Amino acid sequence: MLSLLPLLLFAQAGPATLTLDLSNPGVPVSPSLYGIMTEEINYSYDGGLYGELVRNRALKDNFRQPAHWSASSPDATIELDRTTGPSASLPFSLKVRGGAANEGYWGIPVRPSTKYRLSFWAKADAPGAVGASIESPDGSKVFARADVPSVSGNWKKYEATLVTPADGTTTKDARLVLRTGADRNTWLSLVSLFPPTYNDRPNGNRPDLMQLLVDMHPAFLRFPGGNYLEGNQFKDRFPWKETLGPLESRPGHLSPWGYRSSDGMGLLEFLEWCEDMHSKPLLAVFAGYVLDRDVLKPGLELSGFVQDALDEIEYVTGGPNTRWGAQRARDGHPKPFELQAVEIGNEDAFDATRSYPARYSQFRDAIHKQYPHLKIISTVSVEDLERGHIRHDQLPDLVDDHYYNTSWEMMRLATRYDSTPRNGPKVFVGEWASQDIPAPWADVDQKGPTSSLGSAIGDAAFLTGLERNSDVVEMSCYAPLLVNVNPGGRQWAINLVGYDALNSFGSPSYYAQKMFRENLGDRTAPFTLTDVPQQTRGADSLPALFASATRDSKSGTVFVKLVNPLPQAQTVKVNVRGAAVAPEGSEVTLTGEPSWVNTIAEPKKVAPTTSRLENLSGSFQQTLPASSITILRLSTKR
Ligand code: AHR
User: Fold this and answer.
1) Is the pLDDT of residue 466 over 70?
2) I need a surface site. Which of 30, 171, 319, 591 has the fewest CB within 10 A?
3) Residue of 573, 518, 572, 582 whose CA lies nearest to 550
4) What is the 3-state secondary structure (H, E, C) of 439-462?
5) Residue 284: its pLDDT value, please?
6) Mutation probe of ligand 1 site: the residue of 343, 404, 477 with most atoms within 8 A of C-beta
7) Which residues neighbour 470 within 8 Å (Cβ) at sequence distance 6 or greater?
């Protein structure tokens, strides 16, 4: 990816002076400031976080051929059969003579001492065994195997466990093979292979990706989108009711990102994902607008969808004595989830009919009546709502702002919320990212897949503005979160966390956010910044130093965040007023060349380092490396 940062001309003044006033208590920092956002894009769930290893498990990905399946040997045959399947939701199957192989999502990951849970639905025209194996693509190496003794004539579920040996191979060059016998026809569907999952949840998530996310300590998870909430057409919206219960009753649906979703990651799985991260769900409800620009009329036409949203909230929060809470209990989770906020729609400013205020108020009034404690999020501005004649008492608690920009523009946006009125709705920055590429959805295999350090510097500069204004910016989350880095795996170029079947890594933007989240006080620490050098691009200029500071009122630790976008080191004078500074502190730094990225091969090329600071006092100088994000941790006593 081309980084623009080294091309900048800069005019060095300075050194800058940052003077902290710790006698001023600052404003409270929102405890929900840092969350994460997710949707099915870039094979985020299927082929990503969702642990399933079999691709096109229910044979619905392509209605003409059994995509991602092949005959296991030259004398075997396979065929897509659209006349028979295990359930009304999954009416298709694979008719096999001899054996069938599934290629997985760019391979099946094999690790030593690993237990794989296999299940499939099958019937056969003569009884016989099915032999399952995880093996190399040419079948010459078998990594694990198991047998299912006999498949009968009616659709039935079968299960087996495959275990790799302790001295086994680690590879993603593997396939799953089901050998069915050449003397009979066997029909297979909903073929599923799960490796161990995070917290050992059945139908659960991939542990390495979960760990990366858990390590971000996200306050909330915004789901299910994004465009994935809306769908291209009404039939493609996130069909939450059809994502519940046993897998054989989930039909799956087409995502707006060009591939089918199995809906193995259903509403309950989203909620359990929150539970595993100790994060709160932030639920977006479908609000009648789809990406093909079709929109439902407010009033009667919309009322069924309003009821659908109320049912969904009841599924999340209702006691087992409510209709949908009881459904959740039957699905295996009697305990209600703690929901704080509901977002009505996604990016409804694109609705050219300007119907959002009317749609919003219909949803808002119904939700507020039944759930007055829930925070309501609008996807358009207060001005747009008011133009649509929204009453003052109907205004949302938060407005969702989205920013996808170059790192230069994200640095400019560091002051975006400095003068936002404090008496209106709060801000939820529900999607944002620095991207030094045009059109992140175009020619994607030529770009990305994850951010560079240069982009992370734009991100960090932007985040300093959110932190300084976290009395009004209550929540924020970067997007998109996840990307399968294989060719063909992405629909959006720049993302936070990358992976293939076996390995995963956080981008520089991931580490920048983790650093910000891990070093966050509960109150802002007011400061002034003077003599700041400028950076210029043509006739345009911006400050060349970005800062925020927060204080932990219990421990007295002050976290000073400093972002240096210049291609050279700069010195900052730090003065601390209103508190004594202990001589010892520490600093966390993220630095390197702006063009550097992390990859599967070099997952931590750009990663934070921590070092001790000594001889600190109420006035000291700090050198910030070129192209760096630095967090100073100072022990202070008032
Ligand atoms: O993050 C990718 C897409 O960008 C989201 O789905 C959508 O909300 C936004 O336009």
Assistant:
1) yes
2) 319
3) 518
4) CCCCCHHHCCCECEHHHHHHHHHH
5) 98
6) 404
7) 27, 28, 29, 30, 33, 524
Cα–Cα dist 292/295, whole Å = 9
Banded model confidence at residue 610, pLDDT cuts 50, 70, 90:
very high
Instruction: Tell me the per-residue pLDDT of 496-528, one tens digit each, with 9 for 90 and over.
Output: 999 999 999 999 999 999 999 999 999 999 999
Taken in order of first residue, the domains within the chain and their CATH numbers are 8-30+521-637 (2.60.40.1180), 69-194 (2.60.120.260), 216-396 (3.20.20.80)
Do 252 and 550 touch, CB atoms closer than 8 A? Answer: no
Q: Tens of pLDDT along 277-301? A: 999 999 999 999 999 999 999 999 9
Which residue of 38, 230, 431, 451 sits with most ligand 1 atoms within 8 Å of its CB, as the best mutation to test the pocket? Answer: 431
The dihedral over CA atoms of 519, 21, 463, 230, expressed in degrees to the nearest 10, equals 100
Beta-bridge partner residues of 179:
99, 131
Atom of ligand 1 lying closest to residue 256 CA: 6
pLDDT (average), residues 26-34: 97
Q: Is the pLDDT of residue 7 over 80?
A: no
Q: What spacing in Å lies between the alpha carbon of 269 and ligand 1's midpoint?
A: 21
How many angstroms separate the CA atoms of 332 and 49, rounded?
21
User: In the chain, what percentage of residues exceed pLDDT 70?
Assistant: 98
Ligand 1 pocket check: which of 402, 444, 482, 491 to mutate, most ligand atoms within 8 Å of Cβ? 402
Minimum CA distance residue for ligand 1 atom 9: 226
CA Rg value for the chain: 27
Q: What is the tens place of the pLDDT at every residue in 296-318?
A: 999 999 999 999 999 999 999 99
**Alpha-carbon distances of 125 from 214, 359, 360, rounded to whole Å:** 48, 54, 55
DSSP element (H, E) containing 385: helix 382-387
Whether the predicted pLDDT of 4 surpasses 80: no
Residue corresponding to tokens 């230069």: 408
**DSSP assignment of 326-378:** HHHHHTT--SPP---EEEESS-GGG-TT--HHHHHHHHHHHHHHH-TTSEEEE
- Nearest CA to 500 out of 607, 599, 596, 602 is that of 599
